[in-house]
Write a structure and sequence with these properties.
Blueprint (H helix, E strand, L loop, with lengths): L1 H14 L6 H13 L7 H21 L7 H8 L1 E6 L8 H16 L5 E8 L4 E14 L5 E12 H11 L1
Antiparallel strand pairs: 1-4, 2-3, 3-4
């Protein structure tokens, strides 16, 4: 539908004698660029989501994890951000599973950021959201690591594809 609109706009503008201002030409080119079809593999999407998650997390670090500013970061990057603490009741099932995995990973020392596909229909292998998670760990005076909580950043697959396709 959008292609038809862009094509119709292009035909209309050329029919008017081709008298476009530089700004109109620029907007027309940008509209055509937005409609360009780009093929991304599943691994490209996951890699791009991981990069976006790391970018959002860096923005959270920049605001020093100020909870009053988290919504503005989420709005800027068009994501949902959720902070969870081990043992609290404010977690989704997937978030609880990730916390348990991070707690288990503390024994082996393998705590790192993570990206998960959230399947809408596992039988058809379809997903529409990716979940980036990053644990926050504090080293206690006795040398033991303590899991303070986990930042969960929900990124829509559509947003990942749009962002990744503009970089190609």
């Amino acid at each position: 539908m959008n292609r038809i609109f862009v094509l119709a706009a292009l035909l209309l503008l050329t029919a008017c004698g081709g008298k476009l201002s530089d700004e109109q030409r620029k907007r027309l080119r940008e509209g055509m660029e937005d409609q360009k079809i780009v093929k991304l593999s599943d691994s490209d999407i996951v890699t791009a989501a991981l990069d976006q998650g790391q970018t959002v997390f860096a923005a959270l670090e920049k605001i020093k994890f100020n909870t009053t500013k988290v919504d503005s970061v989420a709005g800027k990057y068009e994501v949902k951000i959720h902070w969870t603490v081990p043992g609290s009741g404010n977690t989704d099932q997937i978030e609880q599973q990730l916390i348990e995995a991070y707690v288990a990973g503390m024994v082996t020392g393998s705590l790192q950021d993570n990206i998960q596909k959230l399947y809408t229909d596992a039988s058809q292998n379809t997903y529409d959201t990716l979940l980036y998670s990053k644990p926050i760990v504090t080293r206690m005076p006795n040398g033991v690591d303590k899991l303070d909580g986990v930042w969960h950043i929900y990124i829509s697959k559509k947003q990942v594809v749009l962002t990744a396709s503009h970089k190609k």
